[in-house]
């Protein structure tokens, strides 16, 4: 166990319960790994469900794709944590289905079918591998100013999802019921309370404890439905190219562009992860993370799953709990593999009511924004030029998310691209940083406030 209360190079003191290479005892590591699983499970299951529903897959096809999403997420997480040669960052990064690809893959599926989706996923994946290979040359385009803005936008654009699920889930008949909001509020309050008012395992497992409390309280409220458990099978066998594969140039182009955006998200997540332990990511860690994204997304396409990327909510969980141990995240990967092979177990977890997950998501998604804000505040000279880039990028990124009708006059394919706040805001930060005079340089020393805190 590593408890660091000394100021780091950026002048910021940080409390870390377990550092990256620390190994908590299994009685702590296992529940902490489950906590990571619960933090990302909703997205890992919901995103394939959204895509499958939008392109009209049958219930059997949908269930199979969800199981493969869990299996591939687990394998990709293990590769990212422990690496295979240069593939993997060797950092506590949880992998799962990328939200960036949801709208593009729906468009591809509706235009060309499911086989074309997997063809585009496989063929376009090397884009991210190439970005990783040339990261030394490209890294100047991704300074802390740009990556910090991307991390902030990830958190900001996830906020509507957290609120929707807190209210009962998108499209739910009971959306906004006081019962839903009260349950979400209970989970939120429990997570904050255990994290701030308790020490040791009770503090670092605060989100898991809050979710369990919410799960139990949901039973007498009639919000827990376990009917799917009896209907689910015991074993799901992975079958490569179960739905075939097709290749269409326009589909590949759309997917390739999405991989570029996902690279920016991964770069931001790696910076956020290492930022929790008070240091910047190395070039090898960045390259390994991008390689893992690319190769494991290609693997996902072969095994009937959608592209995988780093999960930002788990970066938020690391910052919230102070637990950055690779062992904990590796355990999460193992659980994902198990869930991908045993549908009944997955159904039990999937039965968790939306308000319970929403209450936890409010905390975690907010922490993602806070981590991005810390990257910018601690590592960037906040002069007029850099503040302008942050302001314009965030306003445009959030603006297209909350006012999508503003771009309805564009062609449909362009609307898909411009409707992504992460894409619009991230590209804006990237372009402005490249063309405006000066640079998004890292601060060379502590600010006057930090110097005062250090001397005090």
Describe this structure in a few short sentences.
With 456 residues, the protein is mainly α. It has helices at residues 26-54, 59-82, 102-112, 114-124, 126-133, 135-138, 144-166, 178-197, 201-204, 206-218, 227-231, 249-275, 283-302, 312-321, 326-341, 343-350, 354-379, 384-402, 412-418, 421-435, 448-455, and strands at 95-97, 308-310.
Query: Averaged pLDDT, please?
Result: 83
Radius of gyration: 21 Å
Distance between the termini: 27 Å
Q: If helices are DSSP runs of H or I spanning 4 or more residues, what is the number of helices?
A: 21
The general outline is globular
Oligomeric description of these chains: single chain
Number of domains: 1
Poorly predicted tracts of residues: 1-13, 444-456
What profile does the largest beta sheet have?
Answer: 2 strands, antiparallel
Instruction: Kindly state the number of beta strands.
Output: 2
Structure classification: mainly alpha
**Helix share of residues?**
55-70%
Arrangement of strands in the largest sheet: 1-2
One letter per element, helices H and strands E, the order comes to HHEHHHHHHHHHHHEHHHHHHHH
Percent of sequence in beta strands: under 5%
């Amino acid at each position: 166990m590593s408890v660091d209360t000394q100021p780091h190079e950026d002048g910021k003191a940080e409390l870390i319960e377990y550092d990256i290479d620390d190994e908590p005892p299994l009685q702590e590591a296992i529940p902490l790994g489950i906590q990571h699983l619960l933090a990302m499970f909703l997205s890992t299951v919901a995103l394939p469900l959204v895509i499958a529903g939008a392109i009209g897959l049958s219930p059997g096809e949908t269930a199979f794709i969800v199981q493969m999403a869990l299996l591939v997420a687990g394998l990709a997480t293990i590769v990212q944590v422990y690496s295979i040669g240069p593939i993997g960052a060797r950092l506590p990064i949880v992998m799962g289905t990328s939200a960036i690809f949801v709208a593009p893959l729906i468009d591809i599926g509706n235009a060309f079918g499911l086989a074309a989706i997997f063809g585009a996923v496989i063929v376009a994946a090397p884009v991210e591998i190439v970005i990783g290979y040339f990261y030394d040359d490209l890294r100047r385009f991704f300074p802390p100013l740009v990556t910090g803005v991307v991390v902030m936008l990830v958190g900001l654009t996830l906020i509507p999802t957290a609120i929707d699920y807190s209210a009962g889930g998108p499209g739910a008949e009971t959306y906004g019921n006081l019962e839903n909001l009260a349950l979400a509020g209970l989970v939120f309050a429990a997570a904050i309370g255990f994290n701030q008012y308790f020490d040791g395992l009770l503090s670092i497992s605060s989100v898991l404890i809050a979710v369990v409390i919410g799960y139990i309280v949901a039973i007498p409220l009639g919000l827990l439905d376990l009917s799917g458990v009896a209907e689910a099978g015991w074993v799901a066998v992975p079958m490569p190219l179960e739905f075939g594969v097709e290749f269409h140039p326009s589909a590949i182009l759309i997917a390739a562009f999405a991989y570029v955006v996902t690279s920016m998200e991964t770069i931001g997540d790696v910076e956020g992860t290492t930022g929790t332990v008070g240091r910047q990511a190395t070039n090898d860690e960045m390259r390994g993370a991008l390689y893992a994204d690319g190769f494991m997304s290609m693997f996902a396409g072969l095994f009937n799953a959608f592209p995988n990327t780093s999960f930002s909510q788990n970066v938020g969980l690391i910052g919230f709990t102070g637990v950055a141990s690779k062992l904990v995240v590796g355990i999460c990967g193992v659980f994902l593999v198990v869930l991908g092979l045993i549908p009944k177990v997955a159904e039990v977890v999937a039965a968790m009511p939306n308000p319970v997950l929403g209450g936890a998501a409010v905390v975690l998604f907010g922490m993602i924004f806070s981590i991005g804000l810390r990257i910018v505040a601690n590592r960037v000279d906040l002069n007029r030029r850099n503040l302008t880039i942050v302001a314009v990028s965030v306003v445009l990124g959030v603006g297209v998310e909350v006012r999508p009708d503003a771009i309805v006059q564009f062609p449909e394919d362009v609307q898909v691209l411009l409707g992504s706040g992460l894409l619009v805001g991230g590209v804006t930060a990237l372009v402005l940083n490249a063309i405006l005079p000066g640079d998004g340089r890292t601060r060379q020393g502590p600010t006057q406030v930090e110097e005062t805190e250090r001397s005090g």
